[in-house]
Each structure stands twice: as C-alpha cells, then as structure tokens.
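Cross-posting from the chemistry board since nobody answered there.

I work mostly on the small-molecule side, so proteins are not my area. We synthesized zinc ion and want a rough idea of how it might sit in this target. Sequence and SMILES are below. Is it possible to get a predicted 3D structure of the two together?
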Amino acid sequence: MKLEATCDTCGRLFLLQQTLPEPAGTGGRCPFCGTRFGRHYVQVLPEVIREADESGQAFSKSLETLGGMGPGFSLNIDVILQSLAQDFAGTDQQSA
Ligand SMILES: [Zn+2]
C-alpha cells in the first residue's frame, strides 16, 4: 500500500517505506533532505510502518473481496475513505 507522507523540514513527499532500515531504506531519514524522523521512535518506526502497510493491504483486500462477491450492492468507496479520514483526524486530535 502507498503510505505517503510529507517531510516537515523540506516539504517533499515520500513513501514511508523509503525510510525503513538500510539497505532497503534510508534508516529513518528523509530520502531528500536527510532529516532524521522520530528520533525517539527509531526502534519502533519500522514495525509501525510495516503494520500500517499490512493493515492497509488487508483492508483493501477485504473491500475487493466484498466487491467481487457480486452481493447486489456497490461499495461507496468515497464514503468509506472519508470515514477512515475522519477516524484518523479524531485520533490525531486526541493525541495532540
Ligand atoms: Zn526532508
């Protein structure tokens, strides 16, 4: 799954997977400006990114399976994604 983020330092877009440990990724640094992300979370970042990636793939696969069953209804993907975004925004506010 494409997990895109924006670097707070240089403002460039990158994929979270690009920051995985070396040699697969940058080892927790911005692929463009080299800023080190989440200094205090270096140990857990790769695992959390992997979890988000796998959960996202499982979510997509479930929706695909549902859609492929020909259940007699069509999934309203826009509303599902909006709901997900609202859940995320709620989580973000709670942690702030
Ligand atoms: Zn950067």
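Reply from a structural biologist on the board:
Welcome over. Reading the output above for you: Residues 7, 9-10, 12, 30, 32-33, 35 surround zinc ion (CB under 6 Å). DSSP finds two helices and two strands in the chain. Happy to explain the token format if needed.
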